[in-house]
Structures are given as C-alpha cells and as structure tokens.
Design goal:
Radius of gyration: 26 Å
Structural class: alpha+beta
Helix content: 10-25%
Strand content: 25-35%
Number of helices: 8
Distance between the termini: 70 Å
Shape: globular
Amino acid sequence: ENNLKDEMALQSYFIQRIEKHLNSKGKQIIGWDEILEGGLAPNAAVMSWRGTEGGIEAAHLHHPVVMTPGSHCYFDHYQGNPRQEPVAIGGYTTLEKVYSFQPMPEKLTAEERTYILGAQGNVWTEYINTSRDVEYMAVPRMSALAEVLWTNETSRNYIHFTERLTEFSVLLKKMDVNMAHSWQRPVLSTVAQNGVLKVEAIPPIPGKKMMFELTKPGMKNNGAKMEYVAPIELMDKNIQFRVWVDENDSTRYESSLLIRSSLASAKQVSFAKAPSEHYPGKGGFTLVDGIVGALPRINSEWLGWSGEDMIATIDLGAKQTISTTEIGSLNDPTNWIYKPSEIQLEWSVDNIVWKDIIYSTIVPIRPNPRFKIMKFKPVDARYIRISAKNPGLIPAGNPGAGKNSWIFFDEIFIE
C-alpha cells in the first residue's frame, strides 16, 4: 500500500507516522540513531550512540542532536581493571577517556554545530544491582563529562582536573557518595621485549611516582618495596605484581596482576587463520602474555574463532626440551562458545618438517579447570603447532542452534 521496498523503509514509515501523531499533541520525538535508517522523520532529534557519525548526519540535515557515543559516554562499562571492579556489561571507558571526549565534530560547519544540543552519559543497569553501585559507575565519570561540556576545550587539562577531583572527593565522602577510585590506580599489563616477558605499569596521572612489590601467590608482604621506573622482567614463573602511587597520605589505591610464565611466554605466535575481527585480543601475544583470562570474560584477554579451527604456531626462539603443554579454552554454550572437539600437537626444529606429539591428557582441579594439560615424552623442539578443532554447528536445543559455534582461547603454557 505504501510502496515500501525493505525493512528500513518500513521503520522510517513507522517513525514518521508516530511523529505526526505526537506532533499533533504538541510533542516532539527524539530517538537513538537507528531512526536515521530509511530516512529521518521531519522534526526528529537524534541520540548519536553508535559513534558520532549518526549525529554528524543528523546535523547535516539540520536536526537537533545529543552526542552520546558508546566509546566515551556509557558509564555501565568497566572503568578500571575488571578484576578489581564490580561486574559490568563490558567495554572499557576510563575517567581519562571520558575527559578526552570531543562532543563537537570538526566535520560540521559553524551553522551545523548549532544543532548539537550537548551530550549525555548513560548508565544501563542490567549488570548493576543497587543504587550504591549506580553511584560507583557514574561518579566521578559524570564529573568528567560535565567539565567537557561546560568548559572551553582550551581550558581543559586532565591533570588539573584530577587535582581538583582529589579535593572534591573529600566532600563526596562526607556526602556518603560511593565514588569509584579506579582513576587513582595504576594500569598494569605485560609486554614482550626481545622475547622476554615484562610487566608494565602506567601511572594513573602522568608524572606520579609509583612503588611496587613482587609476591608469591598465597603469601603476603614477602617482597621488597621498590620504585617503579621501567618494565620489570619477572624471574619467577608465578608472581603477583602489586603497584601503587607513592603518596604522603595513608590511602593506597593499588593495582595487582598475577602473572604466570612459561617457555612460550612473549614468544612469536602465528595463525593459519586469524581470529575473528570481533575478538582479536592483542593478537598472538594474547596466548603468551602470562595473563590467564578472567571470568566473566574480558574480551581483550581472549581470542575467538567462529566456525573455524584455531591453528597456532609458537616459535620458542631456540631449541628447547619440552614435555608439557597447557591450553586454556572457554566453555560457555549460553553465548555459543564451546570447547574444541579435538586438539592436535606437533613439533618441529625448522618449521618445515613436522612430527606428531602423542600425549596423555590430565584434567586438573587446580590451578584452573579450564586448562587442558597434555603431557608427553620429552622432545627437543623450537616450534610447536597446536590445532584445536571447532566442534561445528551448535546442536539443537541450545542457544544459537544451527549456527557456527565459537572457540575461545586465553593462554598457552609450554614446559
């Protein structure tokens, strides 16, 4: 009846029809940027959440816009190390990232910029249980967004902002506001330097002096406290690294990371088929970075393949005598993720001639039941190839039945 060619045209038809009805009642509509699909209703305002492009398009059409991109304005995302944070929906939006937000796109003309009304921070509560938790997710990121919107760009300075925020936090504490202190914790990660695994700490505020200590899991205060000045090489295979800003007060907002290394750590990893662009982690380094993937899943710590096998080759750098391989995988059928149906091991000294490894499988209770431990007769190898078979289509009766199953991996240890 209306010559609508596809679903987007149908959506546009509906939005325009409902807009006419609401306009007749003296109301205006505002919608998420999906309402641009198929053609924007004549008087609609747009919430640009899938990036800023929707807002730019709407402003080009002279429609009011609220900028609220998921990259900077979603306060239900993690804001610090997920291991030290309440469970969140995902993502990673730090206080500094919120403060770096530029709500006014350079692509717009002076006239088009007048259609940008402002920006909005969002706190969706699927993963947030109480009002106190909502405060934790919103404060102080809401302060950062407010300053971005109410202060000229030339006057904004993140270091100055955090200095004022430190003083403001005293007032918030007196008001019993459950303020997050993630922004005061150093950021920890591991890096590969010439085939050596090191732990790197970045201060929460540039220029801050940091102290660190190394401890063994299960033991406390058994490491000397030293100043952190550069990435640290870990001499033990199982180390808890703790780091904090050296302040004069008694408050200590520390970050910690458990790092487990092996002969494979920081070595070169190549794939026959690259992981999915949606779950690329940190590339091959993800599997040899010494960090066991967290649960709930932190996507940056995992690599995922949909409907494809994972075939990884690890170059140990030199010939090594090895007899054990551990592979961490995920089993989460609710999210279409399954353990590999089969794992094959091969070894080589030249990356040309390959020989099979016959292994016995041990299903461990500790340290992590997700890991498959494979022991075998010692071999002298430089290269190890691990082929993990995707189980195929998801069986009937399960979420995603008939679709490709996923396989996810977080770490490989070789001894």
